[in-house]
Amino acid sequence: MRQAVLGCTAGMELLKKCVSETEQKVLVQEIGKRNGDWYDGECISIGQEKDAARMKLLSRNTRQNRELYKQKRREACRLYRRKKRKKINKQIADIQNQNSSKEYRKFYNVLKN
What is the DSSP code string of 15-30? Predict the structure, then answer.
């Protein structure tokens, strides 16, 4: 009886491990698809600067720290917006180019995705 219980718990541990590994792989792939085109090292560094300013604000809530955090947050949002806009404009130009060059199959495949 004890061996059956031990075997069952070992099986459950293996199952938990497999599920968590698969979940991590799938989530990483989904995150990479969404921002993979435009989210780069510059975005990471400005995000870290913003996070550091926020931690400083949380540790000591002064007017100067509040202004610094607002400034960093504003800079980060502007950068993200600019990069997203650049990506979208590039996609639109590619779609228009495919349509004008009469590559209809590629055109509709891009529109479908």
Answer: HHHHHHHHHHHHHHHH
Structure confidence by residue, pLDDT tens digits, 50-86:
999 999 999 999 999 999 999 999 999 999 999 999 9
Half-sphere exposure for 88 (CA within 13 Å, toward CB): 6
Neighbouring C-alpha atoms within 13 Å toward the C-beta of 41: 0
Look up the pTM and report it: 0.65
Contact status, residue 33 vs residue 25, Cβ threshold 8 Å: no
Is residue 73 a contact partner of residue 52, using CB atoms and an 8 Å limit? no
State how far the Cα of 84 lies from the Cα of 31, in Å rounded to an integer: 15
Domain ranges of the chain: 1-35, 39-113
